[in-house]
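hey m, so remember when u said the tokens were messed up on ur end? i reran from scratch. heres the input so u can diff it against urs
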Amino acid sequence: MRPMTDRPDPLRSPALLVALLMALGLPAGGAAGASPSPAPPPFPPAETDFPAPRILLSDDMEAEGPWPDLANEAYRMGRVDGALRIELLRPSQAAWGWVNLDGMRSILRGSMTVRLDGEQAAAGLLCGTSAAAANGSFLGGGFATDGTWFVGRVTGSGMMVIARGPLARPPADGSAELGLACGQAQGGGDRIRLAIDGATVAELLLAGIGPFDRLGIYAARGIPEGGARFDDARILGGDLIVARPPGPAPDPTAVGTPAPPTPVPTPTPAPSPNAAEIELWAHLPSDFAASCERIATDATEDVLAGALCRPAGSLGIAEYYLYRDVAAMTAAFEASVPDGLKKGRCGTGPARGAYTLGGKPAGRMACYVNPGSAGGVIVAWTTEPLRILGYGVREDGDFGALQAWWVEESGPF
């Protein structure tokens, strides 16, 4: 396993920040920072109500880009025949992922060509935030093979539908141009507009999570095999506060917590922690262990368990991995750390060295500039008595603050 060395944003251990939050409720991968094209196509029909002049991302999926290439026993995600495909391998499975964008925006607009695969499938787009959100981290909507549209909120276990309705013209071949516009509204809440093939099908005022810095994709399947393909991504951002939706006052159940929410589809329950995960969690810092989620690991590899912590105390994100033995952990550390680092402390710049606990050798540590496009600085360290490899990332590039976090908060304990 190659941890966080070359990722623009440290959401998954190999590389980048788009992450798939599967039905297990676990982030597992991601990316950000594709080079925008000079001009996006028109985004129907939100130009006036959701002004977003800044191009944040344009990706035709033909070449390597910000989306991950992942596979495990529950899903596969990667580029197939010029499109990004999410293939769900289990019945009643849902998966969603996101790309981190450049800064927080009060308005976010995304459009993609989406094709449903399978007889019982659903797919959509999501607006999200990396900030803690009492009302969930994503809002969005899409369409399904039964000829309906839906708008909902992503929770830790799946998509909870707030509104649903029939499509006047269901896509004959399961393919549609999907557009989502999200904006922080005057007086509070987020205004959401869902468009399918250029026609607005839903517009709601929901409990607010904005501002936004993530655009997500969502796919779900029923019993038959299924998933979705996504192509021609265009993402725009703006900084104005939008007007509240026209017409009568919004339904308070849509602004607040939906009652009762409807799963689309019901996700597979998260499994009970195994012995390795119990061992790992016993050593996570108690101040932020409750914010940590398990990272799916391959039983054939040397990693026994993984944890993703967001936030990690004063740091936005950290990861911890329990290894079979010290040799495998040390090899993973050396593979992730850049060559040529000077020996020393991290307080003033890139460096590497050994450290002690209680006067006894405890492991290795290194800090370095994140080579990914999102920048920031990374600290990596091993804790040999526990066989745990840790990573933390600070996006503002402050080596002194990163060193302080590692000394005072990072653990493991």
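this time it looks ok to me. The first strand starts at residue 21 and ends at 22. if urs says something different then somethings off w ur setup not the seq
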